[in-house]
Amino acid sequence: DIQMTQSPSSLSASVGDRVTITCRASQGISNSLAWYQQKPGKAPKLLLYAASRLESGVPSRFSGSGSGTDYTLTISSLQPEDFATYYCQQYYSTPPYTFGQGTKLEIK
Amino acid sequence: EVQLVESGGGLVKPGGSLRLSCAASGFTFSSYSMNWVRQAPGKGLEWVSSISSSSSYIYYADSVKGRFTISRDNAKNSLYLQMNSLRAEDTAVYYCGSGIQLWSTQVWDYWGQGTLVTVSS
Lengths: 108, 121
What we know:
The structure holds two protein chains of two kinds.
Chain A: E1 4-7, E2 10-13, E3 19-25, E4 33-38, E5 45-49, E6 53-54, E7 62-67, E8 70-75, E9 85-90, E10 98-99, E11 103-107
Chain B: E1 3-7, E2 10-12, E3 18-25, E4 34-39, E5 45-51, E6 58-60, E7 68-73, E8 78-83, E9 92-98, E10 110-111, E11 115-119
Parallel strand pairs in B: 2-11
Antiparallel strand pairs in B: 1-3, 3-8, 4-5, 4-9, 5-6, 7-8, 9-10, 9-11
């Protein structure tokens, strides 16, 4: 099974900051990577898929990049509503689909 | 409006059984694969199971294989998860989800609100 290692596990930042979260797969996943945002008590929300494609309605301050085994989620200018937990998910080939362990983004 | 509404969660003793349901509306349920994802308290997301639109393809995480059964009733627009031989480590919020706007089996743009399953004596 493909393992996803996400870093950092937590991050403190201020409104207006640029932040980057990284996800590394245990093998190449050919851009088969999605990013989700989850707020406490809520279901995950899809932000990006295919590593860099923005889901409809998601602000353009969110972007994704990467290839092979290494991928990043960048938030260009943090807004108050962005403080949440972020997960990457690989969907290369058939299941199992695996998530990273999550990055909790907190207000500094 | 697309809606996914889970139900059936609750408190069950170790070794017991529970059946979760996910009622779908606002889209052509029979055209889309469906999925269950769970989240233990304070922990991350874990994919549990997937079923194709016609039930031809079914997949399970190793952690639930042989104990859980996913199924669907397209006439009733409903997804199910039969959970047997439950363990404490199955305690989690269970979400159903689907890739409806994206027509994706693997990326999920719609999720239910979740239903909590607690396995404890």
